[in-house]
Amino acid sequence: MIVNLGVKRIIGVVGLISSVATSLLVLSCNSSAQSKAQADYLDAVRHRNAVQARIQSDPATAWTELRSLAAEMKRAEEEELSKLEAGAWPPNAEAAIAELMKEIRLALPYWQKAAEATTPDEVYSNIDTAFDYCGGPAAGKVRTALGLPQA
Questions:
Q1: Distance (Å, whole) CA 61 – CA 64
Q2: Do residue 24 and residue 56 come from a single domain?
Q3: Do 46 and 26 share a structural domain?
Q4: Do 137 and 100 share a structural domain?
Q5: Domain tally, the chain
Q6: Which of 6 and 43 is assigned the larger pLDDT?
Q7: Residue 4's pLDDT is what?
């Protein structure tokens, strides 16, 4: 029996398989130092990525909940910054890591303002501005330098 999954679903499955295969290939072909750098980077961004997913998951999230998530994001970004500063990065990733740390430092005050906001507009505005900085082009450069697929 032939089951029609639809083109989008098939493309999505093929893309997922390709992404997993690429990740495994990257991990198996790189040096152990590069693999450690990859693991260190993924560890550094894990909490931040989880909070970002929660912030962006439901457009109907109450502004007071977003305010709480902004406070958590600030903590996650501070944790990420600390781990990035402490990391031993390969020479080809050092400039991208420095650029990412700069972006995080620029975003932190906006996460703080969103966490302390007293109106919905203040929360939304500061979260939008924080997102203008965090996870931007520098994160993509780091992932490329470390041989990781783009998120």
A1: 8
A2: no
A3: no
A4: yes
A5: 2
A6: 43
A7: 33
DSSP-assigned letters across all residues of 26-38 = HHHHS-HHHHHHH
Same domain, yes or no: 19 and 40 = no
Query: Are 25 and 48 in a shared domain?
Result: no
Q: Model pTM?
A: 0.75
The tokens for 50 are 């989880």
61, two tokens: 């999230």
Helix, strand or coil for residue 127?
Answer: helix
How do residues 27-82 score in pLDDT, each as one tens digit? 444 455 569 999 999 999 999 999 999 999 988 899 999 999 999 999 999 999 99
Residues 15 and 76 in one domain: no
Contacts of 27 (CB under 8 A, 6+ apart): 35, 38
Show the tokens assigned to 84. Answer: 């990035």
Helix axes 137-145, 91-116, angle to 10 degrees: 150
